[in-house]
Amino acid sequence: MAPSMLMEGGRNHTSVVMFVLLGLSDDKDLQLILFQMFLVIYLVTLIWNLGLIILIRIDPSLHTPMYFFLSFLSFIDICYSSSTSPRMLSDFLKDEKTISFISCATQYFVGCWMGQAECCLLAAMACDRYVAVGRPLQYSAIMSPCLCQKMVVGAYGSGFLGSLFSTVTGFLLHYCGPNIIPNFFCDITQIIPLSCSNPFISQMILFLVCIFVGFSSFLVIILSYGFIAASILKISSLKGSAKAFNTCASHLAVVTIFYGTSLSMYLLPSSSHSEKQDKLLSVFYVIFIPMLNPLIYSLRNKEIKEALRRMVKRLTHLLQ
């Protein structure tokens, strides 16, 4: 897709109006297989996360801070997956995988917003787990509904502002030459190098946003689990220690997968992994994690399993 010609100060110069996504593969047969596989993954992501939200809302036993946060984590996963999966699926069936400049900016904005909101929400959930383990007698008083709502608003608000700054500074650069993105979605770290402008300010703002939102959230999680570990060590009985750790196991697994993948993608030098490895990490980060999060919480959680059994019984009773 050729860049458009614009006039400025009596001189012609080009401005990119479309980006070309290379996608995951050029093989037509493989693309059809990938289309079917990723369609199933996307549907599972939608159904499982939406089902978890509904289950938490209708079952009174799940009306606790942990599940309140989990319902919003599931909403983030739905939005995050939906920002990339539908276009990726449609691109598998196209010969020319192009995306308009505005659509690319919108896709990045939504994905970045949800990704940064997830960082903050995981930090809030880590604080919740610390209070549950370290201050169990004051848990209900400390983690009040009002505080939980403020923490969720703060997580979404921080993600929105961070994404806004990153998107505006990244997409206000002048793009006049190459317009090929070597991935299946709009990743700002692969778009900024295509700019004809000096990208220093945009890269600095992107770096600062990652520090303030991503790293600060990670630091809160590390500190929370440090306090959790100290509290568990104070428990005299082995059974009590195991029970306390079990309340944090699902969250710890989600944090490990989320941050492990994101740190591998964005912090390791590009020379340490190939373009194919970059794409595989992107697939896992963007496509698989939103599906894995509800599965990790559901399969390891007795309360959710019991709530699901109760809901199935109610439905079967109504249908009889």
Automatic annotation (TrEMBL):
Limits of the G-protein coupled receptors family 1 profile domain: 48-297
Record's bilayer topology term: Multi-pass membrane protein
Function of the molecule: Putative odorant or sperm cell receptor.
InterPro entries the record matches: GPCR_Rhodpsn (IPR000276), GPCR_Rhodpsn_7TM (IPR017452), Olfact_rcpt (IPR000725)
Residue stretches spanning the membrane: 32-56, 153-175, 204-233, 245-268, 280-299
Pfam families membership: 7tm_4
Tagged with keyword Lipoprotein: no
SUPFAM superfamilies with a match to the protein in the record: Family A G protein-coupled receptor-like
Assigned keywords, A-Z: Cell membrane, G-protein coupled receptor, Membrane, Olfaction, Receptor, Sensory transduction, Transducer, Transmembrane, Transmembrane helix
Domain of life the protein comes from: Eukaryota
Family named by the database record: Belongs to the G-protein coupled receptor 1 family.
Location relative to the cell: Cell membrane; Membrane
Organism, as annotated: Ceratotherium simum simum (Southern white rhinoceros)
Name the record gives this protein: Olfactory receptor
